[in-house]
Structure prediction request, 369 residues.
Amino acid sequence: MPVATAASSMKIMSIEPHLLKGGKCFVLVRTSEGITGIGEVSPMNAPASAHLIENVYSKLLTGMNPLDIERCWEKAYFSTYKQGVMGLQPETIAGIDIALWDILGKATGLPIHQLLGGKRRDSVRVYASIGGGAHNTPKEMAQRAEKAVAQGFTAVKIRMDYGPTVPDADVKKDLETLSTVRRAIGDEIELKYDVNNGYSVQTAIRVGNEIAKFNVIHYEEPVAQTDYAGYAKVVDAVDVPVAAGEHEYTRWQFRDLIQIANPDIMQPDLVKCAGISEAVKIATLASAHHKLLCPHQTQPTIGTAANLHFTSVFVANDMAQEFDHGGLDSPLNGLFKNPLEFKNGRLTVPSGPGLGMELDEQKLNAMAV
Prediction:
């Protein structure tokens, strides 16, 4: 059958969620032409996402042409709008949408970065995202940062994992952590700082003006994710670029974030913000407002692969992108016949069709919950 004919008649036959040990959820979309696309949802609500896929989205989308990605996205999103536009609904759609882009690439023989307009570089510089700062000692965080540098990372981020409910928990320790990490990694390594929404506005401003002495280049989510007005005050008061966006899930939320909070760096997360399709619209919105783009991403395999395609197209400079430090040793890497390649602080952008990752379904089933 000619490719064009096969494409026009292709149908979604099934959408399968695969819950894995460790709280992950992969999505497999199977088609009438024997092409299977793979995707991933955010681990924040993985069991609930699996339930939605089995009981809602599989019924909505089965029978549709998987190459009609925008039509599938609209049907999934607007048919389930009241399931919630912050969290579960867009996170679930993300897994399906990424799988549909994988199918499009496999059907055309092209990698996703080519379908998006063409990559700017063959590899993406990544920073080691190191969490647990609220519970670990400054020395422990510094030791982990040293290990990341020894592995080849040229940038690290310290994550505090606070949340907004108890602001300003231990600011003295936070500053000690940054100071200890900076001494440990030296002056040449880029340092980013993620408060995870843990400061009041006044404290965020004070800390933001103090961390310049540690040469922090990225000040992430210093205040509650719901406090857009507070963000604007912090942005106006500090010189360090302020980053936000992992808690925004749609183009409409990013519109409001930009117009009200006005952060310097936009951080959509492809396994949260309803997938590649919506992330492309967010990238256009960021470009229209002259905002830097540095997506949030902590999922080491499919999520990171999707992010590599996306950032290689839409991030104009060589800004380091997020990669969870534990991802280098993740057991999920063993599920793929061609795991992502890390070398000299960079991840190679996959060149195969679609995501460019070949999933071993036997190993996937063995890791299933």
